[in-house]
Amino acid sequence: MTTTPILILGGKGKTGRRVTEQLDTRGVAYRLASRSSEQRFDWYDESTWSLTVAGIDTAYLAPPVGPTGLAQAGKFIRQAAAEGLRRVVLLSGRGVGSPGRDFAVYESSLELENQVKASGADWTIVRPAWFAQNFSEDFLLDYVLGGEIRVAAGDGGEAWIDTDDIGDVMTAVLLDEQHTGETYSLSGPRTLTMTEVAAELAQVSERPITYVDLEPEEFVAELIGFGQPQEDAEAVRDLFAVIRNHRSEYVSEGVQQVLGRAPRDFADWARATARTGVWSA
Ligand SMILES: NC(=O)c1ccc[n+]([C@@H]2O[C@H](COP(=O)([O-])OP(=O)(O)OC[C@H]3O[C@@H](n4cnc5c(N)ncnc54)[C@H](OP(=O)(O)O)[C@@H]3O)[C@@H](O)[C@H]2O)c1
Fold first, then answer.
1. Among the four 32, 49, 133, 235, which has the fewest Cβ within 10 Å?
2. How far is the CA of 11 from the centre of ligand 1 (A)?
3. Is residue 34 exposed (0-12), middle (13-18) or buried (19+ Cβ within 10 Å)?
4. 9 alpha carbon to ligand 1 midpoint, in Å?
5. CB of 10 shorter than 6 A to ligand 1
6. pLDDT band at 3 (very low <50, low <70, confident <90, very high)
């Protein structure tokens, strides 16, 4: 295990925050770096990169979503490895490199994985399914609160994963070099369509929630209307296209492989999350 602090990029986000909580519990030192942290780091401001990795041996990377951001992350990893970064744990996405994903965002994610592998640093790649916490901590929360989940997922299913499970996996991988050279695909234990998700959330939150299946271009227009850059809106459309095309209807064993236990079911996660009051607002 590394003796220098572990660098956590994206440490205030949905996965990074859970990794830092686990490291706190274990008394492991880390350096959190993002635009709003004490160690300022910006994927798009290369002048912040060298100081961020100075004296760091191992890093957790939660990269940006769109192709431009993913390209920046690739550039960063090449530079960081040249400056002494020895080991990287990369958050990627489930299905990257698989057939039926001929979209820029998937190609950019695969390119980033390849750049990590070619960087000279030791690597572990973790490819999770869609996060359940998108409905409680990210862009789908407002839809839940508004009672209409307006996305372009058709009637496809996804094996939604609790990011607590991702945090546990990332921490285990960061702390044990035996995972070097492995690629893990993670998911929850069953697939749910967006209609089933809406029904589960309606039940636990005791509020009406329905799924409105948008046409992909209608979805992009709505996201841009909410202030998303076009490139990111199109990336989100294409990520949903994989669900829409029924390419996500499978479960993956990564949580069991790394942690030796089953992942948490969406319904358990939803019940516990409802108790936090996040959907009562
Ligand atoms: N959501 C899903 O269902 C899903 C599924 C599979 C994979 N993923 C992947 O997960 C990654 C996102 O991880 P996450 O959900 O854990 O993060 P997140 O919740 O989206 O949080 C983003 C983090 O990155 C930081 N950040 C944002 N813009 C930045 C910038 N320009 N420079 C430096 N730091 C920046 C933020 O902190 P500051 O605001 O302080 O900068 C924050 O800590 C993406 O690559 C996505 O493709 C997501």
1. 49
2. 8
3. buried
4. 9
5. yes
6. confident
